[in-house]
Design goal:
Largest sheet: 9 strands, mixed
Mean pLDDT: 92
Shape: globular
Oligomer: single chain
Bound molecules: (2R,3R)-2,3,4-trihydroxybutanoic acid
Order of helices and strands: HEHEHEHHEEHEHEHEHHEHH
Helix content: 40-55%
Radius of gyration: 26 Å
Length: 344
């Protein structure tokens, strides 16, 4: 036993001496021949991309185009499989949490839940902030959009580009709604977003925040009376089956994001990162055009399927009722908010 301990002490002494030397740089032996570079291991990846909406909805179509271009651009080294209909997370918050936890690699969906991860995103969801598509494109593709994308890595998320959900409109099963007075007492599902909840409260409705994956069922069972979304979502989710009235309120613009988990992003070589950013930007114009170009056609189809569409809604009383919410966030986000408003 004693011998064992003295042996052990000797080993420990040697270990300590070696470790002690480690701190000093030993001079590099000079060689005349350059060593052959170590073979570079080819980067390969398979990513799961989740969207909350149907196969024929604008996120899923944009995401599929992105996946095809990446596969072609990397000769199949990077394979992205698109899972629509909330297969990777019942709603948008859950899917984004999946990106943080590493169970989902990529996301294409609205920014509605983003305020829970990066609070500054809430400013984009203020009603009547964006005037039209030209305004949207300037802001989201400019310095403000970039500053928001730059904040995402602190939430373990990496934004590649702003895509589009669209201007949101109210549907309900009770009555033809034209003014905020018509909304009084209506149970309206909202996104899990504090600005939207406050807005519907200000309008006199009873807001019910709920994840997107539960909305169709809740409308069908009449747990809620209405919801609001762009025409492309209403159409592809077949909400006409459970909602009689659609009012074209266009009360708020809803941006979308193409995002990847920050962990997956950091593992990618620089050249592939560059390809991702370039491709995301290329697909942006196509993705945004899908909703913009098809709205009139989808609206006509919703009508022919029996929906009563209130096409002209005077937005002045809506804007007036929502002014306290608008002013609150204008004050909270100060400079960046006025920069958005002043973008021409
Ligand atoms: O992203 O949750 C929502 O209302 C979203 O706008 C919808 O799922 C599309």
């Amino acid at each position: 036993m004693k011998r064992f301990f003295s042996g052990l002490a000797a080993v420990m002494l040697v270990v300590a001496l070696v470790a002690g030397c480690g701190g000093q740089e030993s001079p590099k032996p000079s060689t005349s021949t350059t060593p052959a570079p170590a073979p570079v291991k080819e980067y390969k990846a398979e990513f799961k991309l989740g969207t909350p909406t149907a196969v024929d909805h604008v996120y899923t179509m944009g995401a599929q185009k992105f996946a095809d271009l990446i596969s072609a651009g990397t000769n199949g080294r990077i394979k992205i499989t698109v899972f629509p209909n909330g297969q990777l997370g019942k709603g948008e918050r859950e899917t984004l949490e999946g990106l943080q936890q590493g169970t989902v690699d990529m996301y294409a969906g609205s920014t509605g839940a983003m305020g829970n991860f990066v609070p500054a995103f809430n400013m984009l969801d203020v009603p009547f902030l964006f005037r039209d598509y030209a305004h949207v494109d300037k802001v989201l593709d400019g310095a403000i959009g970039q500053s928001l994308l730059d904040e995402m890595p602190k939430a373990q998320l990496h934004g590649l580009a702003f895509w589009e959900n669209g201007f949101r409109n109210l549907t309900n099963s009770k009555r033809a709604i034209k003014t905020p007075d018509d909304v009084k007492g209506l149970k309206v599902r909202t996104m899990e977003n504090q600005v939207h909840i406050e807005a519907w409260k200000a309008l006199g409705a009873t807001p019910t925040p709920m994840t997107w994956g539960e909305v169709y069922g809740a409308l069908q069972q009449k747990v809620i009376d209405g919801q609001e979304n762009p025409v492309a979502v209403i159409y592809t989710a077949k909400l006409n089956e459970v909602q009689k009235y659609l009012s074209m309120t266009r009360h708020v613009y809803s941006p979308a994001l193409l995002a990847i988990s920050e962990q997956r992003w950091k593992e990618m070589p620089k050249a592939d990162q560059d390809l991702f950013v370039k491709t995301a930007k290329e697909v942006t114009a196509y993705q945004r055009s899908l909703g913009r170009d098809n709205e009139a056609k989808q609206l006509a189809e919703l009508k022919s399927k029996g929906m009563e569409v209130i096409e002209t809604v005077d937005t002045a009383p809506w804007q007036a009722a929502l002014k306290p919410v608008f002013d609150k966030y204008a004050a909270q986000y100060g400079d960046r908010f006025s920069q958005i408003l002043n973008t021409k």
